[in-house]
Please model this.
Amino acid sequence: MVALAIVVDVAFHSGGDTVVNAAELARRTGVARRTLEPVLQALSRNQLLDSVRGPNGGYRLGRAARLIRASDAIAVGLDSMDDSSLDLSGKLHRAVIEPLWDELDAGLLAHAGALTIEDLLKRAARAGLQRPVTMPLNFVI
Model:
């Protein structure tokens, strides 16, 4: 569940040159950074996330949201750690991830194979969540 929450959060909060750093992910998901790191590495190894190094580094999607299936992230999460004891929090998690897990209870991977990260971003929009502005504003005086 943590891997899917991470991928959706990164898709929701990144774009253009904007990346999401691990500290932001930890704060929004309510999961300790040391717990997130192995999952972030696994998601990067599986090319679901792209890791950007440097002082302004972080994570962005490894490919377009429409090309990443929810089942891809779930499979990485199942392989990378047992997250059943974690208590995730945050608006994005409550609005998107928790309702998704209720739907996926019966036939998890079969149903998740038909969902993309883009589909989950559309669910966030329908829930009234607005993505942050990814392009800097230019003001001319």
Q: What stands out?
A: DSSP finds seven helices and two strands in the chain. Strands lie at 49-52, 58-61. The chain has a mean pLDDT of 84. The helical segments are 2-13, 22-29, 33-45, 70-80, 91-104, 108-112, 117-126.
